[in-house]
Design a protein that fits this description.
568 residues, alpha/beta, eight-stranded parallel beta sheet, six-stranded antiparallel beta sheet
């Protein structure tokens, strides 16, 4: 029956209803359809709903080319399950699925889905279409070799140049043919998923990757110059007027510098500063991504997002030094106005200021998702506890050898039902060393005190070690390079879930919890094995200084269930 449906569908597509699709059925395909994954607002948080229940994505993103070979990928799957992932972020390459225009081959996609399903994993798929870190490297050869049909970006110097000095040709967003071709291919992919992934192993789609342009703040090609001379679209002007009080500072400044005009050309409304070219490019990249997203959702309306290379950051201050026009924090309002069908915009966080980036992207209407970052258990629990993150995913997971990440995923996965239950009620929070505000928030909410370190340091007499130079713990804030491997993250941290008026669950490392206004009644150790919670010891006596405090070891990630009481 399914083969017959596919044949009928392909015929309808052939006669003009959509793109031609050559199906490759996934092995182990589910016999009955399940509900499509969706985003649902609950209280002040947004959650991903999978099969009717909230789902917290504990993922890793594969290196870009890893999924292109099922044989290369085969031994990697077990490593991913051993690291306690529940989701893998993989890639779909346009050049592989449409090697000749109009002829589709989904064999690599089917292998990825089949193996993920076999290993009990979900997938988020990245559509490597026209833009991958601004370049057109994943476009098919029939696109790359036809610059007349698919024109290239032009900068003042002629070529795009990445921060490390590599020059390359980028496909211009102003060519209508490229948006149409990309949209057609993406729709074909989503049609194929609709027909073959009945149990929705694929949870979400990333539409293109780090769009924008290097080497200049705006495209200088002939088509781009025509667009620059046109009036600013009414949709953008209306959006800015309606949201004027809450616009990002970057957009407020570039618009305000010209007197908050409500009509005119791009230069008349935004001027000629680098940020004006960035706003111009942001609108056009976002409109292109919107068209591609709309085409895909017409076939299968999975949650869809696009991601951004951060900027401005150290050594990349001006648009063009970082990708101009991408969904950076300062241009999120332009992207939201231009691409309402894109569900959210995500940061690739290779910045020492993880907390600051999270705060910039966690905005009303834009739930936080971290599709690329370094491996850091403290950052993971911060994103979960402070920002109700949809998911967290270190990049290059097939090359990561960080045992602490697997341990953290084991613990967070076991606590996920509690986390997702209490998030909408505002009863999940995080503390992290170096952020005093998070500690104050914890103490106000619980009536307990929190110190970083171990019992010996916390219980030492005042000024006992004043003659010693304070040792500073390593943290990502001490890392200078924007690229490259970070130091091991040894900050103290904790995730706190208030499960009742006098009850809480605490997971963390390198912290000591002391009684202050509230008293510690019972402290139960929670053991985590294979993602399951098991009862451990009732902690008392020497382990808790007779019920006055408890420690979460700095060399482990430990979990405690605590009941408190107040003295009369």
């Amino acid at each position: 029956m399914l083969n017959q449906k596919l044949l009928i569908s392909s015929f309808l597509l052939f006669i003009g209803i959509g793109p031609i699709v050559t199906p490759h059925l996934c092995s182990g395909q589910a016999s009955a359809k399940t509900s499509i994954p969706s985003l649902e607002k609950k209280g002040q948080v947004t959650q991903l709903i999978v099969d009717g229940k909230p789902w917290l994505i504990l993922a890793g993103e594969l290196h870009n080319s890893t999924p292109s070979s099922p044989d290369y990928m085969r031994p990697i799957w077990k490593k991913l399950t051993d690291m306690n992932l529940n989701t893998v972020i993989g890639t779909v390459s346009w050049e592989l699925i449409e090697p000749a225009e109009g002829h589709f081959d989904f064999a690599t996609v089917d292998a990825e889905i089949s193996e993920a399903r076999k290993h009990g994993l979900k997938l988020v798929l990245i559509w490597f279409g026209t833009w991958k870190s601004t370049a057109g490297s994943y476009a098919p050869m029939w696109v790359k070799t036809d610059p007349k049909r698919f024109p290239m970006v032009q900068t003042r110097s002629g070529h795009q140049k990445m921060p490390f000095g590599v020059s390359f040709e980028g496909i211009s967003v102003f060519g209508e043919n490229i948006v149409a071709a990309d949209s057609k291919a993406f729709r074909a992919l989503m049609h194929h998923l609709r027909m073959t992934d009945a149990d929705h192993t694929v949870l979400m789609m990333q539409v293109d990757n780090e769009p924008g342009m290097f080497g200049d703040n705006r495209d200088r090609s002939a088509l781009a110059e025509v667009a620059w001379s046109r009036p600013v679209p009414r949709e953008l002007l209306n959006y800015m007027a309606e949201h004027k009080a809450g616009l990002t500072p970057a957009l407020t400044k570039v618009w305000g510098d010209r007197g908050f005009k409500t009509e005119g050309t791009w230069e008349e409304v935004f001027g000629t500063a680098p940020a004006s070219g960035e706003a111009f490019m942001a609108w056009h990249y976002a409109r292109a991504i919107e068209s591609i997203t709309e085409a895909g959702k017409a076939e299968l309306p999975l949650p869809m997002y696009t991601n951004g290379w951060l900027g401005p950051v150290a050594n990349m201050i001006e648009p063009g030094q970082y990708p101009s026009g991408g969904p950076v924090a300062g241009m999120l309002d332009v992207w939201r106005a231009a691409a309402p069908k894109v569900d959210f915009f995500s940061p690739n966080v290779y910045s020492p200021d993880f907390q600051g980036v999270c705060a910039q992207y966690d905005r009303p209407g834009n739930p936080l998702f971290i599709p690329e970052t370094y491996s850091s258990a403290p950052n993971l629990l911060w994103a979960v506890g402070k920002h109700a993150v949809l998911g967290y995913s270190p990049f290059g997971i097939d090359g990561v050898s960080d045992d602490s990440l697997g341990l953290a995923y084991n613990v967070v996965g076991a606590l996920a039902p509690l986390i997702l239950k209490y998030q909408p009620q505002g009863k999940v929070m995080a503390v992290i060393q170096g952020n005093d505000a998070s500690v104050r928030e914890f103490e106000d909410a619980t009536g307990l005190s929190l110190k970083f370190g171990d019992v010996r340091s916390v219980m030492a007499p005042p000024n006992a070690d004043a003659h010693k130079k304070e040792e500073k713990k390593d943290s990502p804030a001490d890392e200078a390079p924007a690229f490259g491997a970070p130091k091991k993250d040894t900050r103290g941290f904790a995730l706190v879930i208030r499960t009742g008026p006098n009850e809480l669950v605490v997971a963390g490392s390198g912290v000591v919890i002391l009684s202050s206004k509230a008293r510690l009644g019972t402290i139960d150790e929670v053991l985590i094995e294979k993602g399951k919670q098991l009862p451990g010891r009732r902690m008392n006596g020497d382990e808790t200084f007779s019920g006055n405090l408890f420690t979460l070891d700095a060399n482990q990630l430990e979990v405690r269930k605590v009941a408190t009481y107040m003295l009369p």
